[in-house]
Amino acid sequence: MKIVVDMNLSPDWVEVLEQAGWETVHWSMVGDMRATDEVIMSWERQIGCIVLKHDLDFGILLALTQAESPSVIQVRAQDVLSKVLGSRMVKILKDHQSSIEKGALLTVDEGKARVRILPFT
């Protein structure tokens, strides 16, 4: 599983996710920091990776376009630092890895995680 951490999250997430065994990169290392969500989504679809984000934009794009990829992990918590959520996020990703690899929107907040399989119907 390849993960791209979006600009709205700290690059510190890269180390946490790599230590859990996933190939991970921060968007600032591979793409234009001013790229639109459509450009980022297209690139991620071509590369076959999953995006970790802190906003709702990709979820909305997935719904509007009925896309089957890329998978998106939305962090909807107040404190999104990897040192706060890292171990919980790793457990959730391992628990839902097969769904994420097939195409899903995984929303994680302080109390729960919810998976929606793509495309949305």
Written overview of the protein:
Helix content is about 45%, strand content about 20%. It is α/β, with parallel strands linked by helices and about 120 residues long. Strand 3, helix 4 (about 55-65) and strand 4 (about 70-75) form a beta-alpha-beta unit. Helix 1 packs parallel to helix 5. It starts with a strand and ends with a strand. The mean pLDDT is about 95.
Short description:
With 121 residues, the protein is an alpha/beta fold.
List keywords for this structure.
single chain; 121 residues; alpha/beta; Rossmann fold; 6-stranded mixed β-sheet; 6 helices; globular
Number of domains: 1
Q: How much beta, percentage-wise?
A: 15-25%
Strands side by side in the biggest sheet: 2-1-3-4-5-6
Average pLDDT, all residues: 94
Total number of β-strand segments? 6
- The name CATH uses for the topology is Rossmann fold
List the helices and strands and how they pair.
Layout lengths: L1 E4 L6 H8 L3 E4 H4 L6 H11 L2 E4 L3 H9 L6 E4 L6 H14 L1 H6 L1 E5 L4 E5 L4
Parallel strand pairs: 1-2, 1-3, 3-4, 4-5
Antiparallel strand pairs: 5-6
Helix pairs in contact: 1-5
